[in-house]
Each structure stands twice: as structure tokens, then as C-alpha cells.
Amino acid sequence: MSNGTGEDTSISGGHLVAKALKAEGVDVVFTLCGGHIIDIYDGCADEGIDIIDVRHEQVAAHAADGYARITGKPGCAVVTAGPGTTDAVTGIANAYRAESPMLLIGGQGALSQHKMGSLQDLPHVDMITPISKFAATVPHTERVADLVSMAFREASAGAPGPAFLEIPRDVLDARVPVERARIPRPGKYRASTRQAGDPAAIERLAELLVRSERPSILLGGQVWTTRATDTAIELVRTLNVPAFMNGAGRGTLPPGDPHHFQLARRHAFTESDLIIIVGTPFDFRMGYGKRLSPEATVVQIDLSYATVGKNRDVDLGIVGDADTVLRGVLQAASGFGDTGAQSRKPWLEELRAVEAKARDKRAALLTSDASPIHPYRLVSEINDFLTEDSIYIGDGGDIVTFSGQVVQPKSPGHWMDPGPLGTLGVGVPFVMAAKYARPDKEVVALFGDGAFSLTGWDFETLVRFDMPFVGIVGNNSSMNQIRYGQIAKYGADRGELGNTLGDVRYSEFAKMLGGYGEEVREASEIGPALRRARESGKPSLINVWIDPDAYAPGTMNQTMYK
């Protein structure tokens, strides 16, 4: 296809993918190669998009999810057809439950071989539709960039989430005249996604807050998703409201802030007269809403209408962007002569006393010199180790449940965990995403030994791409969260069926792959080992042997074991 001067004016499907990714602002794709998708690589090379190739497609999908969480921009993973796409399904499912915007592009057999039994042919769209916001097949090369932009639009609107496109091999490899291909221009194919919320409802919430004596607010993941951090801080400080944080909302307020609360949540939700839930659903983490006082006025703010009032009645529901809604509430409250901030001082003092009592109750365990090491001592050492520039990643069951009670990120957007799907194995890919997106930040990851095993081979990818981080394995040679449940339900003699692991020295694994590793068996050695890992400048694993018979309170309280 020439313009008469010998110059080729055609473009391939893979190059159209790359142009559409570039228009979206994508600067990296996470991938595992396959014959169906290599033309996308060629296009990315021309467009200046980096390619990070991993050892398992689940890692690629989790990394795209993690990239979105860190940057606020959709991440992208590219995998081949059949098992390449099915390997990535867990990553898509995790992003779906966590409301993380990403695009998975999967290969597919040629359209000309449809239903003929081509290599790796599977009904990908049918499989992924229930766990994505958008899933489609690209039917023609001319439509490649158009459908990529459509997928990104769907992934980013409302409550965000993953999108999926499969591109048949002949569609991807074919060339079409450039003028026939629709290539959306950057910034020209998406509307603003910031929903303002009902003005009357915002005025009503402002009035409720001003008149409340014992309010509390829970800042959930959407506070970070919508980058509402500054507004949330201004609101709680101006109106003197105690704030609790969960998920990606952790770090909104720094530790030590007078409005930052962590351990008094149950007391607050029992005694508050007004409870505001921002950007988190009434799911298992919230006891499906049953943990909130039936006497309290409950307000829920969320990007999705489907989440508001789900599992529990609310007195006021507002669908909208957290930053926009909270900004509106703050402005409306400023119109009242007395916002009630001063009268709420005794309420904050009451909660602070509850916090102190809970902290004192476990103080001995936080400093315990016991051997094997108590998990509370390990997570306390990690908390002390973090700086304002440390992004903390938790990947595991029982050990990460311990850390959720102790570890406090010191800056917004510096806490990453799987989210409500509870997926093990996100740690290494989240490290990959965080270190790529923010190479200036220190990344600290805590793994359960079972969780690390799922995606640990991509530690080599971190070495290959020179992505240093401080990794800690809380090693009890067991899937301990499950072990506790089996003992509780069936007795100690059946407590180790299907959940007991080998005594693996993960430090040697790290060294074998070119990283830094240490074994730690004494509590006094945790801090020095972490500092040596930091100073090594390499991907690292500090293998800490912890007490297999110590369980987190959150593990023991899980209803599935009762």
C-alpha cells in the first residue's frame, strides 16, 4: 500500500494497538510473549512504550493492576491466547473486586480459522465478561485502536475496573491504509469522570456533620482512587472528625495526626451518632454493615450506585467522586456559623483513650524477644523501618492480617494489598509495578511463605530489570490462616492437612537469582537485617522464622471458621 512514491502508508493491527496505548498515556506493558501478540511488541518499540516481560501471565495482570493503583492511570498487560489468557484471569478478577482500571489484551486464533480448532483457541470473551467492565473481540484491523480506546473509556468511568480485548492473529497482523483506521486522538475520546453528587444531598450531609456530637468517618480505597487525599484531610481537620482508613485509603493521614485513628474503630462504630463511609462497600471487611450502630445516622459515598445501600440500609447515599463530594461538603459546612468542631474535642479524647488502651494491651508482644519470633514483633520492626518514601505491600494471609493492625504508611498511596478478593501472590508483581512507576520510592514488601511461593519466580524479573526492594518473608512453614481454621473446626489432630509447607530458606532462593538474602531467627536481628537489605541496592528477601502457633486476632475472628 503505497502513496505512489514508494512510501508505505499502511499500518498493522499491532502498531494500531501501540498508537492507542500511547494516546492513553500508557508507558509500559507487562507481558509474557506468544506468537499471537508479537506485532504489538513491534508497535510498542516504535512508540517508545517499555516492555517488561515476566515469567507468568498472572504476574503481568497483577502488575498492570498495581501500576494503576500507584499512578492513577490504567495499566496494561498483553498475553497470548488460550492458557496465556486463562493464566491472567486471576489478575483480572482481583482488579475487578479492587476497582482497579486496567486493560488486558489477549491473543486469539485467526478469524479465518474460527471454530476450526486453531492453536490455543478458547472463548476468552465469554469467560472474562463476568469479571470485567468490558470484554470484546476486535473484528477488523481498522477497528483496533477504536476498540482499545473504548476499553479504556469503560475501564475508567464510574467505579473503575478491568477491561479485556482479544485480537485475532490475522486481525493483529494485517495491514490497512492509515486513513481507513480510526485512531482516537489523545484527550479527545473521554469525558470527565468526576461525578459531583446530588447538591441537595451534599448540603444535607454538611448539616448532619455540623450538628453531630460524635461523628466518625471511614476513608476507603476510593479516597486514593479519586485522589481526594488533600480534601479529606482538610475536612477532618476543619470539622474535627476522627478518621479511620482501610485499603488504599491507608496513609491519607500520617501516623500521629490527631485525627488519625486505627484501633478504636469498633468503639467508634458502636458509639458514633453519625458514621460516614467513603469509598468502601459493606462487604466482609465491614461485617456487611452489621458492625455499625443501629442508632447512628449512616451516610455512604461511592462512585457506584450499585454499592450504596448494598447489604445495609443507609440514611443518606451519595453517588459521586469522593474528592468532589467531600469538597462540596466542606464548602457547605463553612456556611454555618458554628461547625461544632470545638464541641467534638471530648469525643476525640475518648477515642484516643481507647486507642491507647488497645496499644498497651499488645505492647509486650510488639517488643517480644521470644523465639520463634512473634509476628507482632516482626510487623512492629517493619513499621519502625518505614520512611515517608516507603511504599508498603502486603501479600499473605495471617501475617498480613497482623501487619494491618500495626503497619502505618506515612504517606498517601503508600499501602498496597490485594483488596477484597484476598488474592495471594500479588506481592512480587505489585513490587514490579511500584518500582517501575516510582523508581524514586523505596518499596517494602511483606510476604507469607505460602503467598510468595505463588509468583516468587518473578523475583528474577525484578533482578533482570534492576528493581531493588526490601522483601520480608514471614515464614512459619504453613498456610497458617487456614491451619487455624482447621484446628478450630476439626481439632489439632487434623490441623495440618493440606496446609503445611516445607522449611524453605527463601534467602538462598533470592541469592540464587542474583538478589540479596538473609536468614533471621532472633528478634534482635530483624532491624539490622532490614537495613542491610536496604543498603544492598538489590531485590532482597529477609527470611524471618516466626511462631507457627501465633495467630492474628482477625484470623481467629473470621466467621468462616465458626
TrEMBL record:
Residues 202-327 form the Thiamine pyrophosphate enzyme central domain. Its cofactor is Mg(2+); thiamine diphosphate. GO terms for molecular function: acetolactate synthase activity; flavin adenine dinucleotide binding; magnesium ion binding; thiamine pyrophosphate binding. The keyword Metal-binding applies. Keywords: Metal-binding, Thiamine pyrophosphate, Transferase. It is an enzyme of class 2 (transferase). Its EC number is 2.2.1.6. It holds the Pfam family TPP_enzyme_C. This is Acetolactate synthase-1/2/3 large subunit. GO terms for biological process: isoleucine biosynthetic process; L-valine biosynthetic process. The keyword Transferase applies. Residues 395-544 form the Thiamine pyrophosphate enzyme TPP-binding domain. It comes from the Bacteria. Belongs to the TPP enzyme family. One of its GO terms (cellular component) is acetolactate synthase complex. InterPro entries: DHS-like_NAD/FAD-binding_dom (IPR029035), THDP-binding (IPR029061), Thiamin_PyroP_enz_cen_dom (IPR012000), Thiamin_PyroP_enz_TPP-bd_dom (IPR012001), TPP-bd_CS (IPR000399), TPP_enz (IPR045229), TPP_enzyme_TPP-bd (IPR011766). Residues 12-121 form the Thiamine pyrophosphate enzyme N-terminal TPP-binding domain. It comes from Nocardiopsis composta.
